[in-house]
Amino acid sequence: MSKVLVLYYSTYGHIETLANAVAEGARRTGASVDIKRVPETVPQDIAKNAHFKLDQAAPVATVAELANYDAIVIGAPTRFGRMPSQMASFLDQAGGLWAKGALNGKVGGAFTSTATQHGGQETTLFSIITNLLHFGMTVVGLPYSHQGQMTLDEIVGGSPYGASTIAGGQGQRQPSQIELEGARHQGELIAKTANKLFD
Ligand SMILES: Cc1cc2nc3c(=O)[nH]c(=O)nc-3n(C[C@H](O)[C@H](O)[C@H](O)COP(=O)(O)O)c2cc1C
């Protein structure tokens, strides 16, 4: 079975929750799945004052270990419609892996969170997907086999480009059941694809 890394950055925990759901879906396939975060770059005292969620259990990833996985699923909340500097800084350090072609042919995908429904979900996903394509990776999104994204009965994240949630202006909304199922579904599809390619 393939080795899958769910790599995320989360300030307030919404992406952390989605990352766990992506991993849960990937594990359904028998793949071996690790969840890791990228390093926080905001000074500890500022992070504390701004009520960052500082008790996240996932270990911090190193850039070099990206090469050890068959699939890498990247989750990050939006910052002004694109990925946060914490994730961009981490990926910017992967130039050496890119130069060696160490990530070519791996499977990847993206998931995100925004405060508002139209606050940049798709552009943020594409800022991650662009990076994955430059790495030479095969991108798997969230197809309409996740039917929950079609609903008009409630506010819902998720699009063909990847799983997502809407956190609310104060972070008061948590990922809904439909959004969590979307994240599981995307994780499962990515792991299934990697299992086929690398088993
Ligand atoms: C500097 C900054 C910029 C942000 N820009 C946006 C934005 O453009 N659109 C939006 O909907 N939310 C924006 N947000 C809200 C975050 O995306 C939101 O807090 C995040 O999705 C919650 O995910 P997390 O709990 O995993 O950190 C911004 C937050 C910060 C701190």
Automatic annotation (TrEMBL):
Provide the top EC class. oxidoreductase
The UniProt keywords, alphabetically, are:
Flavoprotein, FMN, NAD, NADP, Nucleotide-binding, Oxidoreductase
Q: How is the cofactor bound?
A: Binds 1 FMN per monomer.
- Domain of life, source organism: Bacteria
Q: Name one GO molecular function term.
A: NAD(P)H dehydrogenase (quinone) activity
Q: Where does FMN bind?
A: S10, T11, Y12, G13, H14, I15, T78, R79, F80, H134
EC identifiers of the protein: 1.6.5.2
According to UniProt, the reaction catalysed is:
a quinone + NADH + H(+) = a quinol + NAD(+); a quinone + NADPH + H(+) = a quinol + NADP(+)
| PROSITE patterns noted in UniProt | FLAVODOXIN_LIKE
NCBIfam families reported for this sequence: flav_wrbA, PRK03767.1
HAMAP family, A to Z: NQOR (MF_01017)
Name the UniProt record assigns to this protein: NAD(P)H dehydrogenase (quinone)
